Amino acid sequence: MKIHKAVFILILALACKTDPNFNLVTISGKQLLVNNETYFIKGICYHPVPQGSTKRSFDLIDQDLSLMVEAGINTIRVYEPIISEEVLDKIWAAGLKVIISFGQDQKGTFDISSGTYLDYVEKYKSHPSILAWELGNEYNYHPEWFNGDIKNWYQTLNEAAAFIHELDNTHPVATAHGELPDELARGMCPNIDIWGMNVYRWDQPASIIEDWKKLSDKPMYFSESGADSYMAIAKAGFEVGENQRAQAVANAKIMDEVLKNAAHNTGLFIFSFTDGLWKAGNPNVQDVGGWAPNSSGVPYDGAPNEEYWGIVDINRNKKLTFDVMKERFNKKQ
To answer: How many whole angstroms separate alpha carbon 103 and alpha carbon 110?
Structure first.
């Protein structure tokens, strides 16, 4: 006997009242709900690679979570699955949630191409830290990864979302799209429940909210936005070189814009938690350069220095933007 979806959701909603670890994430209009209460993402992108390494490590997870809680962060976004259940448990114990992203090709480790991402969904769909599943990151910028035709990715994306829906009725499926999804993306991916958008429109990202309202009734969130703390040129009153003030000013304006439009988006992830010394040269030192593609809208010099994006540095010293985030994310919405 088939149970109607609405009835199924009602049963789950009743379950969440009796089980403190129950985690039902649903969508109502353009809002995200966790156990039937509105949930607004106050997020950080998190890929902690230690100095001298090129691989992610969670050795400092306790310190990092403590800093995140202080900053008012409630959600972490990772670029590949967290394999350690202990780490997921710590995220949950700290009162945070996580969006788990699956890549197309992660050498067979819970990736889309091998189908093993479904093994991860099956294993962790009941973990209370999970907020949503996310498929791909800015793949629309890389048709060369899909035999030169981005339609191949959109077809894969839509099918992958459908397979997750078959396994998991308690979490939405998202994707992190580079900028505003065009008609092709939207038309080919009806199974995407909520659209993440990596947005670098100087210090005024909220314009994309108005753009999206004209195109879709589905909810959206800012899967990436923010500024780095290095000025490649002197501009807009900010001096060349490492410049935490420029980053702090930009992030303040970005967060203010998104927060005041909270009724029309489900939150944002600031990129990123810690500086990434592995990105642009010798991972033992902080290099200038390593420009990200399609990111000329990065404030205030248009040059995204990939190793200077943290709200803390590689040693977890707080940058000026940390307090900017702390002030805004800890305000009651």
So the answer is: 8
